[in-house]
Amino acid sequence: xxxxxxxxxxxxxxxxxxxxxxxxxxxxxxxxxxxxxxxxxxxxxxxxxxxxxxxxxxxxxxxxxxxxxxxxxxxxxxxxxxxxxxxxxxxxxxxxxxxxxxxxxxxxxxxxxxxxxxxxxxxxxxxxxxxxxxxxxxxxxxxxxxxx
Length: 148
Description:
This protein has helices at residues 11-30, 48-67, 74-85, 105-123, 131-143; strands at 88-91, 94-97.
């Protein structure tokens, strides 16, 4: 049986989840693989403002690094940071770096903090107090204080 996940946002989705469970639980028992049901609040994934701020940081660092002779693309740095701070796993014999896409707001904030600290300690790059970043943070932090 394949994994099923339902994000309950309406009565219809709740009904579909119940129908799925009622349809499959007996087959799972007969196969000797009972089902496990977990109900939890859905964690909000990273915020678009966080992602925009992150890419301002990565692109700024890429320019800084290029001036120091480290000619790498922003995507190179992004992959390197993901590998270092989020890790990787082997999938079908190939290394796959974890993605930032599924991180929660709090996890992505922690990731950005780790990247910023790394840039400062390893390269001497201080993330500038960019007015665009400051404005995004001010506007969004009021509504979502856990983002930054």
